[in-house]
Amino acid sequence: MKRWHYLLGGPALLLLIIQFVPTELPAVETDNSGDIIASGIVSEEVTKMLKTSCYNCHSNETEYPWYSHVAPSSWLVARDVRIAREELNFSLWQDYDMIEQLEKLDDIYLEVEAGKMPLGIYTLVHQSAKLDDAQRKVIIEWAEATMDVIAESEEDAESEEEEVNEE
Amino acid sequence: MKKLTLLPMAAMVGLLFFQGTTKPEVETAPNHLAMSPDMPENIKAIVDQKCYGCHNAESKNEKGKAKLDWDAFEASKKSKQMATKGKIAEVLEKGDMPPAKFLENKPEGKLSEAELATLMEWSAGKKKKTE
């Protein structure tokens, strides 16, 4: 065997072997009745941005590209999507309680404002998911306004409760 | 197989698990805390003593400041305060604050059980309507 046999054969063999490491990509669900968009608190403009820049990881509607089925990139995709959904899953929005929704909107505000989301490694391969400054502004303004709406509706609900109790 | 050929692969695999971490900076001298008048006195006292050292507007601990700034908390809207309190409750529940690394150098910074309970009740409790 010549030197180049080792140079090419080694990595190729390794690549082949690692395909047998079990990796489970988080499942795709298309029927999400508790989705944030279905809840009616998202404008059309923001809906579009969430779908193109966030939903691949932060929802149950992940569209897996071909390389997410090939190790080692599959490991990264599986891990990132799993963690992303644990942190924030737009498909399960209506399962979150009021405080959780406020926390998540506040996180959206902070992450998007700081340019931390969408992740650089993601936009590197998904150029269309990039958000420019104007888009970021729209998202953080939406997040802030929505937090106020949620906090206020809770107050209303509480005062109604009190009224009922008084009666 | 030659070891050299494995190196690039190992490096690639290793990269997948790489996560940027920031070193916590220890803040020693807490400044004075001027907080919102509607914050209960007992909460103010604990925060001033145990949290404010890192979580203030002038903090050199960038991460601590970014996560929570008590000076900004005071001025923020109700919805933001509610979100922040929710996050505080979560962190306290997990026992993540004050950070273990910080406590290594400053064990007296640890929250007593009573302080922890007080902070948790305040941060997790639903706000009461007064009017």
- How does the overall form of chain B come out from the CA principal axes? elongated
Summarize the amount of helix of chain A as a percent range: 55-70%
Specify the biggest β-sheet of chain A. none
In percent, how much strand structure appears in the residues of chain A? Answer: under 5%
How is the biggest beta sheet of chain B arranged?
none
Regions of chain B with pLDDT < 50 over 5+ consecutive residues? 26-35, 127-131
Radius of gyration of chain A, in Å, reads: 21 Å
Brief synopsis:
The complex is a heterodimer of chains A (167) and B (131). By secondary structure, chain A is mainly alpha-helical.
Give structural notes.
Chain A has six helices and no strands. Chain A has 167 residues and is mostly helical. The longest helix of chain A is centred in the last third of the chain and has 34 residues. The mean pLDDT of chain A is 89. Chain B is mainly alpha-helical. Chain B is 54% helix and 0% strand. Chain B is elongated. The interface between A and B is medium-sized, with 31 and 23 residues.
